[in-house]
From TrEMBL:
Belongs to the phD/YefM antitoxin family. It comes from the Bacteria. NCBIfam families: phd_fam. Antitoxin component of a type II toxin-antitoxin (TA) system. Pfam families: PhdYeFM_antitox. This is Antitoxin. InterPro entries: Antitoxin_Phd/YefM (IPR006442), YefM-like_sf (IPR036165). It comes from Cupriavidus basilensis.
Length: 77
């Protein structure tokens, strides 16, 4: 469970809490009258899609519509 801190305590020590979240990687929940209202967590960049990862990875592709020569094809037997 994420650590919880009151809004007033967070206001007084925000920079210290930011550093704790950065260092630990654990989220911090800010409460107002005991009820969670905010979550402070480390930023994680969105992961790239598989198509973005493969973009520009094909160096050369000659005759893509031609059949594959049977001698070049390695099939499991």
């Amino acid at each position: 469970m994420a650590r919880q801190v009151s809004k007033s305590d967070f206001k007084a020590h925000a920079l210290a809490y930011f550093r704790q979240v950065e260092d630990s990687g654990e989220p911090l929940v800010v409460t107002n009258h005991g009820k969670p209202v905010l979550e402070v967590r480390p930023y994680r960049s969105p992961s790239r899609s598989p198509l973005e990862i493969l973009r520009d990875s094909v160096v050369r592709y000659d005759a893509p519509t031609e059949p594959v020569d049977a001698d070049d094809w390695e099939a499991a037997q």
